[in-house]
Design a protein that fits this description.
binds iron/sulfur cluster, about 425 residues, 12 strands
Length: about 425
Amino acid sequence: MEKTNYFDKSFYICEAQADKYTHIIIYPMKTKRVNRRDFFRLSATAGVSAIVVPGAAAAARTGLLSGNESEIPVRTLGRTGVKLPILSMGVMRADNPNVVRAAYNSGIFHFDTAHGYQNGKNEEMLGKFFTGKARDSFFIATKGKFDYPLKEDFEETYGKLMDLSLQRLNMDHVDLFYTHALDKVEEVKDERVIAVLKKFKEEGKTRFIGFSAHAGKPELLDAAVETGVYDVILLSYNFKLSNLKETEDAIARAAKAGIGLVAMKTMTGGTEDAAGKKKINAEACLKWAWKNEHITTAIPGFSNYDELEECLAAARNPELTSGEQEYLASLCGQEMLYCQQCGKCRTQCPEHLPIPDIMRAYMYAYGYKYSRMSKETLAELELSPDICSNCETCQVTCPSGFDVSAKIAAITPVMQVPNEFLT
Ligand code: SF4
Ligand code: SF4
């Protein structure tokens, strides 16, 4: 019998028996995200797919997946040769292992986490969930961040970071390890970084190596091609990119060089308005990203059953309709929550504030409604408490039309909010 013990007193626990599996379904009392209808729908889903999907997921790894076994198309992740469904799970926001279970049972195979997500609890949750499951029935990616320029003890501290991630995940290796959030060409090409990544691979701690990049900088992809060592790049890719043509050209060059491409930030912040009030059409966003055949898979950060279902609906019918195309086109000229991470504001700001990262934190809180991640992101920036106080007027003119100082004023108070009050 498979059991999860990942619950606390705020949850009700229900059980749904399915042939040889017992699923413990936990749903929160405090929110209305899962209602009675959702519960029965999920129970039914778990019962059916538990029998079918683990085998299908394992088959996907070896390239045997046929259209009859899973309704989600698969693509090959560059030179790794690994076949992945076009829909993966960005686990970042998820803290309910039963959403992970529902994704796994629905044929999702690739789960993306990071060392820093939820202060390590995200990796721990996945470690508990995957314990006892066939190692070839899932593909796990994690990420580790480092400060640049590198400190003297970089190799040692980064090695410890990797070991701690493996310990939390309760695995002897991950499938993919990314250096997290690279922003400069010299970071991608840094010999010390490359040497550590190669060592992780040689030691069998990861099968493949890559990097993630929030910034829409095509030059990072070209730098990766030049090094010849990165197997996969996790990049921001969406219909709002201001340098879409340059990005797609660089994606094509990277794909030609055998690098696997994974898309994030496909939902451009989760809402279609700058105030963060109107949810974006997630299906349209995902289908748009999958139109690019070089994108192997996308990692939307769904954290509840409704969001998962929306993503699954897109993956099972990934053709972008003309209506969806028109909808996305109508959003192109509109100010939304998505910061292009172009960095133009950094040079304009006399304090050289890490504005792109602060805008990302803003998006997490106002778009994803995930204020904890927002606080964590800001904490990493070590901002002074009197940020912006030396300016009478903000010097920054953002090409996306962001009122940068207003957004900074709106998000930095989250740093003072105790964690128990955050979403
Ligand atoms: S705030 Fe504006 S200028 Fe700064 S990185 Fe974002 S889009 Fe670029
Ligand atoms: S008000 Fe604008 S220019 Fe001044 S420190 Fe803040 S972001 Fe920089």
